[in-house]
């Protein structure tokens, strides 16, 4: 009886800690603080533990989606897209780092390492645009469509099943990529910046290709 009570207390404590971590992960708007918070959270995680992979990857993605939802829109579509996509990239970087550290599948680990390089480069460009661009308030409808583009991804997360780090990376990064594709497509009709327009088009092409690779891997490695 004492052992059961102790186990119940530990379960409640663990659940409370999980809720606290989730709440903290969504309290930032800026991409820089989001990335730093996720990196700090990552540094305290264990390695070589496939059983915890699903919780870890899902926590990273939930925190990233929450940060984007909390971002305050300026009504300047270019500015808002750059800020939101920078935050979106921060989530991909955290998930890719988790896969690079703990994944077992060579193809997925290599994809994660490639993501770390390519999306960090794009994120730096997005940060530079935001720092050098003064937003001009306008109709926020276009900016709000950026948020609306995440709805299908949020729904997809609810149906994701936990598994190994490899499986969770392929499943959740595929959903994350789709949200990036949808966001880029929502941005393009009102895009004014040639630089950001070109980046959005590249994001669509690159992430569609990578998503297809991950979908194929999932088909060939069903749990």
TrEMBL record:
Location of the DUF305 domain: 37-128, 149-218
Disordered: annotated segments: 33-56
Record's signal peptide: 1-25
Pfam families tied to this protein: DUF305
Alphabetical UniProt keywords: Signal
InterPro entries in alphabetical order: DUF305_CopM-like, Ferritin-like
Transmembrane segments: none
KW Signal (keyword) present: yes
This protein's record includes keyword Signal: yes
PANTHER family from the UniProt entry: SLL0788 PROTEIN
Name of the molecule in the record: DUF305 domain-containing protein
Source organism: Nibribacter koreensis
């Amino acid at each position: 009886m004492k052992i059961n009570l102790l186990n119940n207390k530990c379960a409640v404590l663990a659940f409370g800690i999980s809720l606290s971590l989730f709440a903290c992960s969504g309290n930032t708007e800026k991409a820089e603080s989001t990335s730093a918070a996720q990196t700090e959270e990552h540094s305290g995680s264990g390695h070589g533990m496939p059983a915890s992979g699903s919780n870890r990857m899902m926590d990273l993605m939930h925190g990233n989606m929450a940060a984007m939802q909390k971002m305050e829109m300026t009504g300047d579509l270019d500015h808002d897209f750059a800020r939101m996509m920078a935050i979106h990239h921060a989530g991909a970087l955290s998930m890719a780092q988790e896969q690079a550290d703990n994944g077992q599948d060579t193809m997925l680990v290599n994809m994660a390492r490639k993501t770390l390089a390519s999306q960090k480069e794009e994120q730096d460009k997005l940060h530079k645009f935001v720092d050098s661009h003064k937003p001009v308030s306008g109709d926020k409808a276009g900016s709000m469509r950026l948020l609306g583009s995440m709805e299908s991804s949020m729904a997809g997360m609810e149906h994701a099943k936990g598994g190994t780090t490899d499986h969770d990376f392929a499943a959740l990064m595929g959903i994350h990529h789709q949200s990036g594709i949808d966001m880029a497509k929502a941005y393009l009709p009102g895009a004014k910046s040639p630089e950001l327009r070109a980046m959005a088009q590249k994001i669509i092409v690159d992430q569609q290709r990578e998503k297809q690779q991950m979908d194929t891997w999932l088909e060939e490695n069903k749990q």
